[in-house]
Design goal:
- By secondary structure, the chain is mostly beta strands.
- The chain is built from no helices and 11 strands.
- The protein is globular and about 40 Å long.
């Protein structure tokens, strides 16, 4: 059971970035999946969640700027981020609560700086 994030980068304020999370070892389409982010010294923060049926929820801080999506055929979760701000700088993790385990990826670093 594995989640592997990719797509993190150093970008300037106002730019866009898309993160991906490849899932393996479980039936991806049967579970809700989420993006979290964490800054050193702070608690991990829920960014967005997408349900089995495609319903989405977002943190107020990213609403209208970030879009979570899933491709069940590719077993992949995405996070499209637009109008990035310096305060979006963090390590971004994907997460899924399976029947018997909570699964986290290793994270991908997003840095927003001029």
């Amino acid at each position: 059971v594995k989640l592997v994030e990719s797509g993190g980068a150093l970008v300037q304020p106002g730019e866009s970035l898309r993160l991906s999370c490849a899932a393996s070892g479980f039936t991806f389409s049967r579970f809700a999946v989420s993006w979290y982010r964490q800054v050193p010294g702070k608690e991990r923060e829920l960014v967005a969640t997408i349900s089995i049926g495609g319903s989405t929820n977002y943190a107020d801080s990213v609403k209208d700027r970030f879009t979570i999506a899933r491709d069940n055929d590719k077993n992949t979760l995405y996070l499209q981020m637009t109008s990035l701000k310096p305060e979006d700088t963090a390590r971004y993790y994907c997460y899924s609560k399976l029947s018997l385990a909570n699964v986290w990826g290793q994270g991908t670093q997003v840095t927003v700086s001029s």
